[in-house]
Amino acid sequence: MSGLDLPEIVNASDVTDYTDTVDVLVIGAGIGGCCAAAEAASTGASVLVLERSAAAGATTCMAGGHFYLGGGTAVQQATGHDDNPEEMAKYLTAVSLDPEPEKIKAYCDDSVDHFNWLEALGFEFERSYYPEKAVIQPQTQGLMYTGNEKVWPFKDQAAPAPRGHKVPVPGDTGGAGMVIELLVKRLGELSVEIRYEVGARKLVVDETSGDVVGVYWKDGPKDGFIKAGSVVIAAGGYVMNPDMVAKYVPQLAEKPFTLGNTFDDGLGIRMGASVGAALKHMDQAFITAPVYPPSILLTGLAVNKEGKRFVAEDSYHSRTSGFVMDQTDRAAYLIVDEAHMQRPDFPLAPFIDGWETVEEMADGLGLDRQALKATLDRYNEYADKGEDPDFHKSAEFLAPQDTGPWAAFDMSLGKALYAGFTVGGMATSVDGQVLAEDGTPIVGLYAAGACAANLAQDGKGYASGTQLGEGSYFGRRAGLHAARSVKV
Ligand SMILES: Cc1cc2nc3c(=O)[nH]c(=O)nc-3n(C[C@H](O)[C@H](O)[C@H](O)COP(=O)(O)OP(=O)(O)OC[C@H]3O[C@@H](n4cnc5c(N)ncnc54)[C@H](O)[C@@H]3O)c2cc1C
To answer: How much is the pTM?
Structure first.
C-alpha cells in the first residue's frame, strides 16, 4: 500500500509463546468491537477484547446517539411514519457513491430486528418524533429526519421516511455512551474479558497459508502474542493521524476541529493493509459546518465565488458542506434578506455583515455584481411561485429574498467552524470478512466500525446514524461469522 506507514507482519513460525489462545480476538471496544464480541460470545466461542485505552468506546462515547434504522421500527410505527425495507434500500442505494447491494439489502431487511436487538440491551428509543429540520433532536425524541430523504433527487427515488433514531439522552453529544455501558455489561454477562490499556500492534500470519492467526500486543513495557481463530479489527478511523489525513483527505487537515479520539490513528486500517486488505473510500470524509438551525436560514441562497448557487440549500448539512468543498477556494456564502434573517444560537458559519443593496453586498463579499444580481433575481422569481428549477429545493424552504438589507454568513473552509471524521476503511464482505484487492477474503481477518468501509461512503450521501448503525449491525455479523469460522 504505497505511502502508508504499515506495521510489520509477524510470522507465526517465529512465535514461540502465546499469552492467550482464544477463538475470537476483537481489537477495540467501541460500537463495532463490542457488538462483534457480544455476538461471537453468544455462539459459545471464547472471546477476548483488547482495548488500548482505559475505558471502552472512545469515539462512540462522543456520539450524540443517532442510529440509522428503518423498515418499520416500533418508533416509526408509533409516530405514524410508513417505511419498509425496500424504500429504505432504494434510498441507501441512491445516496451511495458505490452501493454494495448485498450489504444494503441485509441492513434494510434486518433493520427492525437490529432495532429490537439494540433495545434488548436495556433501553428504549422514545416513541416520539421531532419534526424540525435540525442537526439532532435537542431532547430525547426518538425519531427525526437525519439525511437527505426529503431532498432532491432522492425524494423522487425513494419514499421519504425519517430514520434517525436517537438514544433517550438529551443533548447533542455523548448519548451513545449509554449503549457502550450496556454493551460492556452484556459482555460481562457473557464472560467476555475486555483487557484495557493493551494495544494490538501487529498481526500474526501463518506464512504458508497467509491466514491471520493472532496479534502482537503491547501494554507499556510488557508485550506478547495472542493466538486467535479469528481476529476482528474494530479500532476506529484515522482522523487523528496527520500523515494519513494529509494523504487522503487534506480538506480535514485545513479545518480546525477533528471529531475523534487519540487512538483514531488508523493503526487498525494499517494492520489490515499490512496483510493485503483493500481500502475503500479513503479519499472521502464527513466534513460539516451546519448553517441550521434555525431552519428559516435555509430559505436563503448559498452562492460560490462566481456568485452562483451550487446546491439545494435544504440538503442535509454535510451534503451542503460536501458541495462547498467542490467550489473555488472551498468558499461559499449563505445569503438571506431581512425578513428571513435570524441569528443561530451556535453560529458555525459566522455572520459576515449586512448591506442595504445587492451591489454593496456583492462588493462586500468580493463577488461580481451582475452575477450575484442575476442569481438572486432568478431565485426570487421562481421562489415566488414555490419553484426551484435549478436545484429543486422543497417548497417549504423557498421564499424570495427580495427585501433588503441582506445578510451573509461565511460557509468557507477556514472561516466556518468545520468539523469532520474519516469514512474510508477496509473493504469487507457482508459478514465483515476483510477483502484483498482481488475481492477474496483474507482468512481469519474481520473488520467492523469506522475502520471498515460499509454504508457511510462520503459526506454528500451521509445520514446521521449511519456509522453507529452500520458499526453495530455489521459488527454483529462480523462477530458471528468470525466465531462460526473458527476450526475446532
Ligand atoms: C462528536 C461525534 C458525534 C457523532 N455522532 C454520531 C451519531 O449520532 N451517529 C452515528 O452514526 N455516528 C456518529 N458519529 C460517528 C461514530 O461515533 C463513529 O463512527 C463510531 O462510534 C465509530 O465506532 P468504532 O467502534 O469504530 O470506534 P470507537 O468507538 O472509537 O472504538 C474503537 C476502539 O478501539 C480502540 N483502539 C484503537 N486502536 C487500538 C489498538 N491498536 N488496540 C486496541 N484497541 C484500540 C480505541 O481506544 C477505541 O476504544 C459521531 C462522531 C463524533 C466524534
So the answer is: 0.96
